[in-house]
Design brief:
- This protein has 26 helices and eight strands.
- By secondary structure, the protein is mainly α.
- The strands form two sheets. A six-stranded mixed sheet has the order 4-3-5-6-7-8. The chain has a two-stranded antiparallel ribbon with strand order 1-2.
- Strand 6, helix 24 and strand 7 form a beta-alpha-beta unit.
Length: 655
């Protein structure tokens, strides 16, 4: 505690007493029924954006139109669509299609699925999102992290090489459960659940997953056939160096050249955003060039593995492949839950990022419903988990997209590819797909953001580090679980150990602030003034009682000094301005504290409690001692001035 200047105690006390302050009575809140309180609490919890306000005062016909536009956002902007917007959307749609086709094939292989499934997933989901989504910039399709998680979680129990049909069934089933979970969050207005994935957690998780994804591509980049199925960095590197006899110099040479080319084009586009089309078209150009090289030199006969023949035609129905049997039900539900949360978090974060750049609003709950329905429909049309990818959406944004029609253009381009161009991918080498994946995920490693977290909050940096190291050395899902667990622990610590501060008066004013923060502030003799900066409930009342008792004991020890002047400390003032709520344990805490202070001949004074706190104190205090007019004030300044005047009056009467 900051020690007050003893020489100025008397002068400071006189100065405070001399200040004429009008005392304002603390008014109780207006009475409301329990039903009204419940309705208000539910509205604030589940409908903070008040989506129904637009229907107020409208006719039935207008309400029907507004409801249709709310469910299907395309009906809102569709009537205003024109040729100028279409030109921009065609350019951006074709641009992201050139990126989506090679990425779709690559990410499907990352999930241990047939390459064609990646293209299927770039056709149907974008069409669904264009109708239901509220973001103009989000480019929908498979993403690297969700693909990695799905592949690794399913592969723990089913081998994609030994039982590919069952593996495919489980992938579609997991996608169904992911979509069901995502849309349920939107319908039930429970989007706040994904907020438990903090920015620090996501940065660490994404960076760790990006490294794991990149290391997994060493199988393709080096031409290794017998590669580990584990995801940790140690088994992956061990597998790489224990199979040096399988390294293929032809594969390494081709992979190294195309990887350098892709990284170089990415660097150009980062330095000059107007040249975004260079990095956007580079993956497709790499696929075309590498396919021509393999075909011309028969490289598949010289150690370079190729994709092989791909099935032509549009997405076949897959609802008959959804697998809900008892043996694997737990696996697909768990995989769907994890991939659903990750893909939902990424999609909403990306959508909000670009919405902020263009100054429009993205409805989080509508996005959850759109992404969820997209995956439910996708699971029935041979698609696996999809969401809005940052790299693809960035290209879409830079290409000048105006509406979600860019997703439709991309889907039509993929459709043409599925119908007519599949034979051209037969000789595409796997090594180029590996290089495309490495180039795509390297952007997920955000070192400047990590440095900023270190500067702002060291505990958040620890959370980020745990996510990063957990993903690297344990597994993707365990690393994420550890980081979320530590984040929740941080929240629990903040709730169970709320901050309390000793407050003092800033000379010449009636302002009271933290003594440790404001060095000019001085403690007021005879008073212990404390600020509590958290809700008071059953998890922190014991701590608060112990902490306040210690503040009082310290103050009494300092005030007594060598002569032990008894009775110097008279009042304990609690500033409740930052206490947003209390429960029954909180009411008991105040009652117990008042009785404990009475035994020490001290009086408890409450300052600026909010309406809910006043109401519960009045209802829980039968003796009516806590909410007495002379024990409750609107500001600390009014409380100190009034109580000092009372002391002075009593002293004069005694004399």
């Amino acid at each position: 505690m900051v020690e007050p200047n003893n020489n100025n105690h008397h002068h400071h006390q006189v100065e405070i007493a001399a200040m004429e302050t009008e005392v304002h009575r603390v008014a109780p809140p207006p009475r409301r029924s329990t039903l009204n309180k419940l309705k208000r609490r539910l509205k604030e919890t589940f409908f903070p954006d008040d989506p129904l306000r637009q229907f107020s005062g409208q006719t039935c016909k207008v309400k029907l139109v507004l409801a249709s536009q709310y469910i299907f956002p395309i009906l809102e902007w569709g009537p205003r669509y024109n040729l100028k917007l279409l030109k921009s959307d065609i350019v951006s749609g074709l641009t992201i299609a050139s990126l989506a086709i090679p990425q779709g094939i690559s990410y499907a292989k990352l999930a241990n699925l047939p390459p064609i499934v990646g293209l299927y997933s770039s056709f149907v989901p974008p069409l669904i999102y264009a109708v239901l989504g509220s973001s103009r910039d989000l480019a929908v399709g498979p993403v690297s992290i969700a693909s990695l998680i799905m592949g690794s979680m399913l592969r723990q129990e089913v081998s994609p090489s030994k039982d590919p049909i069952l593996f495919l069934q489980l992938a579609f089933s997991s996608t169904f459960f992911a979509g069901l979970f995502q849309s349920s969050l939107g319908f039930l207005r429970l989007g706040f659940i994904i907020d438990f994935l903090s920015k620090a957690t996501l940065i660490g998780f994404m960076a760790g997953a990006a490294i794991i994804v990149s290391l997994q591509q060493l199988k393709s980049l080096l031409g290794i056939k017998n590669f580990t199925k584990k995801m940790g960095i140690v088994p992956v590197l061990s597998s790489v160096f224990h199979n040096t006899d399988e390294w293929s110099w032809q594969t390494i040479l081709m992979g190294f050249c195309f990887l350098l080319f892709l990284l170089f084009t990415r660097h150009i586009s980062m330095r000059k955003p107007k040249l975004f089309w260079i990095s956007a078209g580079a993956p497709l150009l790499s696929v075309i060039l590498s396919t021509l090289l393999v075909f011309a030199f028969k490289a598949q006969n010289h150690g370079i593995s190729v994709i092989g023949k791909l099935q032509e035609g549009l997405n076949p129905p897959s609802w008959n492949m959804l697998h809900f049997h008892d043996n694997y039900l737990g696996l697909v539900m768990k995989t769907g839950l994890v991939t659903g949360i990750i893909s939902l978090t990424e999609g909403i974060a990306v959508g909000r990022t670009f919405a902020a750049l263009k100054n429009y609003q993205v409805d989080g709950n509508k996005e959850m419903i759109a992404i969820g329905v997209m995956n439910i429909v996708g699971s029935s049309t041979s698609c696996y988990i999809t969401t809005g990818a940052f790299s693809r959406s960035a290209v879409n944004h830079n290409a000048g997209c105006k509406t979600a029609v860019s997703n439709i253009i991309m889907a039509v381009t993929v459709m043409v590819t599925l119908l007519f161009l599949m034979p051209l991918f037969q000789y595409t080498p796997n090594v180029v797909l590996g290089a495309i994946i490495v180039t795509a995920v390297i952007g997920l490693i955000d070192i400047p953001a990590a440095c900023q977290i270190w500067k702002i909050d060291k505990f958040d940096f620890v959370v980020m580090l745990c996510a990063f190291l957990g993903v690297l050395f344990i597994s993707v899902q365990e690393g994420l679980a550890i980081a979320v667990g530590i984040s929740i622990f941080k929240i629990l610590m903040q709730v169970t150990r709320p901050k309390t501060v000793m407050m003092g008066n800033i000379p010449g004013t009636d302002i009271y602030r933290d003594l440790h923060h404001y060095k000019d502030a001085a403690a007021v003799p005879g008073f212990v003034i404390l600020g509590i900066e958290a809700p008071i409930n059953f998890v922190n009342t014991t701590y608060l009682k112990e902490r306040i008792t210690r503040w009082i004991d310290d103050s009494e020890s300092e005030n007594d000094g060598a002569k032990k002047k008894s009775g110097l400390l008279k009042f304990v003032i609690l500033d409740l301005s930052a206490v947003s709520a209390i429960d029954t344990s909180g009411v008991s805490f105040f009652k117990d504290l008042r009785m404990a202070l009475e035994k020490k001949n001290l009086e408890l004074i409450l300052v600026n409690p909010i309406g809910e706190v006043i109401e519960k104190l009045q209802q829980g205090d039968e003796a009516k001692e806590l909410a007495r007019p002379d024990a409750m004030f609107l500001t600390v300044g009014e409380a100190v001035t009034t109580l000092l005047s009372t002391i002075k009056t009593h002293s004069s009467a005694y004399v």
